[in-house]
Structures are given as structure tokens and as C-alpha cells.
Design a protein that fits this description.
Blueprint: H1 17-31, H2 35-76, H3 80-93, E1 97-101, E2 112-115, E3 121-127, H4 137-147, E4 155-160, H5 166-175, E5 177-180, H6 182-190
Parallel strand pairs: 3-4, 4-5
Antiparallel strand pairs: 1-2, 2-3
Helix pairs in contact: 2-6, 4-5
Length: about 200
Amino acid sequence: MSAPARRRSATPAVPGCAVLSLAGAVLLLITNVPVGAILLLVAAGVSLGVGRHKAQQAAERYRIRSLLSAEIARYHAMVPAEFERAVAFLCERDGCTGVRVVGGAGGLGADVIATAPDCRRIMIQCKRYGPTKKVGSPDLQRFGGTCYTVHGAHVAVVVTTSVFTKPAADYGVRQGIRLVDNGALAGWATRTGPATWM
């Protein structure tokens, strides 16, 4: 007489069994794949992630450069008096008080006077020059002769839509005059860079 057939009890369906089966299948697949192939797949995934991150960074740099370029083009389109008012607006926007445009013959070298949020007195000379005309040393020397002694500036700044010559930059450093060229101005205006008194 043969042994009685064993009766199998029905196993109730357990949620997640399919997931466990899938995980088992993946584990079986992985154990049969050479380690080098797995590392290659992981490296490819990491490389794709890094590549995507670099592409996003490049796109952001391009967006900022375009924004800065457009901002400088806007300032180049202004007449000098408009440029002075635009710089005064930036001072007010960033928390300065007592902002006044005093350009012209009576300004004695200062175009914008303001008080920084930390109470320092700021004197700004604005040079709205074309892209090919640089701010030279004589421009800075005239301003340097009045910004501290006549105006009592704590912070002396020359802002331009152009750039500074090397002698002008050297003079500015020696005299403690902050130089804001077209790139720094665009950064200030778009809030991607600091204000002139920072």
C-alpha cells in the first residue's frame, strides 16, 4: 500500500510576494552577471547623473550671462542723467536712505549720495561710457580729490557701464575707491552680485 498523498495546504496570498519574487529574480540575474558588468552599469548611471548636472549648470550660467548682457545693454541705452537715476534707484532698492542725485557741475565729482544700511556715507560717481571707452586714471583722480575731503565719504565708488584702465584700477586700489565695472554693475542690478558698498 502506498503512502497516502500529502495534502498541501493552500498558502494564503501575502501582499508583496510578487515584489519578493521580482527581487529574487533580480538577485538571480545579478548573481549570474559578472561584477565588472554591474560596475559598468553603475558607472554609466553615475555618469549620466553628473552629465545632467553639468548640463543644468551650463544652462544656468548661460541664462545669467544673457541676463547680465541685457542689463548692461539697457544701461548703455541711457543718457548720463538717466544712468545716475538708475544707480540711485539701485541704492534705494538695496536699503540705502537719503539717496540723492547730485550730478552736474555742482556735484564736485559726486553723482549719487546715499547712506548705506549700516549708516556709512556713500559717494558714487557714475560713468556711462560706451563699451569701447574705458574709465581712465584722470577720471578717478578728479573724484579721489573730492570724495573724502569735500564729501566726507566713508565709501567712495565709481560705477561704469564700461571697464577701467590698469592705471585707473591701480589708483582706485591705492585710494580705497571701489570700482564697479560693467560686469559688477550687471551683477548688482540683477542681484547676482553684491551692492557697491558690500
